Amino acid sequence: MSRISATPSGGAFAIEVVSTGTGKIVVGDFTETFPMDLTFWDAEHYEQSWAKALRRLEEADVATSCLVASITDPKTANYISCWPLYRIQGTVFVQNSLIILNELNKVFDPERPWLSTDPREIVDEDGNKISEWRTGIENVREFRAASG
Questions:
Q1: H/E run at residue 144
Q2: Cα 63 from Cα 119, distance rounded (Å)
Q3: pTM, whole model, 2 decimals?
Q4: What are the Cα distances from residue 108, in Å, to 14, 77, 96, 99, 105?
Q5: Which pLDDT tens digit goes with each residue over 106-123?
């Protein structure tokens, strides 16, 4: 998995489809729009996947999950763009990453992308700090309750 950088923060949480082929994630005061390929999944499938991934965070005080940002057919794709989520007690850390499919030890399961998410790291192989944002699990719960 290749990490993509930005800057850390804390607070609110949301992820949504904002227009055809475009999603938006909010973590604290960080907001980013991202392209969503609609050839493999439609917008509704992304939303269902996100809901499932967020529910997974509530299952344990220490949990790893993954929000798929953009996916094409894993049988022919090179990578999946995603937002790995790492819950440690009441805090959820969010990173931006790529799952490089030919580097996996097992077949990628699009219905359980967290199985292909690496454990949380805060420094990359070159010693650079990996950018991440943080929010509280209560913010994730509030978002899930509001979005159904």
A1: helix 137-147
A2: 10
A3: 0.90
A4: 25, 11, 18, 9, 9
A5: 999 999 999 999 999 999
